[in-house]
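tool_call: predict_structure(chain=1)
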Amino acid sequence: MRIALFGAPGAGKGSQAALLTKNESLRHISTGIILRNAIRNGSEVGEQARKYMDAGSLVPGAIVRKMAEKAIRKATFNQYVLDGYPRTIEQAQWLTEFLEENAAPLDAVVSLKIPDDVIVNRISKRRVNIKTGENFHLDFKPPSPDIDPNDIIQRDDDRPEAILKRLLVYNDLTQPVEDYFRQRDLLLEINGVGSFEDVHERVILSLKELQSVP
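tool_result:
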């Protein structure tokens, strides 16, 4: 099974990718993780990406494409969930061309749908320990009482006004990409509200229904 996973910041994309990896034996291909690892390891591609990031610029699509294609080849073009790519029409076209050239087209594009107000509520309750880097959530994983409250902060980009800006950017970029895959009968829109397990059941059910279509 070859899946691309979409979801706005805070939609639970990472959790669903982890559950698909665990329960469906899929390889999780996250371009964000690959990029960070490449930079940390000092690889040639990582050093190229670092120059753009240090300058405050977006990493060019060609570099991200190279990383995604390498990871897909490593997965032997099967049994993977692609997370964080494609994000633009250009990337979607690249991906389609690359996979078709290798006779391994996507089976589905899963898009987790959550109202903006729910996402704002979720993300705005995230906290981080400035000394250890450990992440917390006021509802699901609150800091233990023995941690100094002064060490627990809210990141600037986790504040409601910043989240709304991130959502606007995400929606502007992603909507055309979703339309691209909808026209190819690959898009599965999943209600992302609820527990991770409930959402996962919806994802699996939709994938099974798709596979049963002749």
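agent: The chain has a mean pLDDT of 90. Proceeding to next step.
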